[in-house]
Amino acid sequence: MAPPPMRTWLPWSELAKEPPVTVDGFRDILRKYPRSSILRACARLSVLFNYGPDAGTTASDEAVEKWAPLLFHPGLVGRVRGFASQKRVILFQAQLRYLAAEMVRLKPYGSEDLSPIPDGMLGELMLSAGELLYQQHQKPTEEMDALANLVAQFLPITRWTLPPKDLFPSSASTFF
Known about the structure:
The protein is mainly alpha-helical. The chain folds into 2 domains: about 120 residues, no CATH class; about 35 residues, no CATH class. It contains 10 helices and no strands. It is globular and about 55 Å long. The chain starts with 11 loop residues before the first helix and ends with a helix. The C terminus is likely disordered.
């Protein structure tokens, strides 16, 4: 059986057709809501989406279908479902981890007496968190760096977890 095709995640800027969110802008949004509410939401969603060491790292298509109306603004739910039908990854575990980590690090403006998280806001926060996790890949300009970058794109990362003799069976004893 062939491995599943690679699926790309959906960033907030693509869904909302807005410029990418900045870290400072993201933190400003987080400061509007009680820390305890965001952290509770992250914990509950992690369980609802069955994230964890013995489970998946992306929400199932069924979970996205079920929870999209509650997580996203009504005007975006149709677009979310459209991207989901194209097999784009909408919700994944690292979004919640990043969101929770930023909330814990954040020094709030005032007390916990803030407005509750409005319906539809958690989806924006999760997609924005996912977008902030990844930096745009820089293309090297030096010839050797460009060559190393090209080689790195073709070497499967999982192979590097093997002992060197397994990487190069015929010549391993010569070098290792």
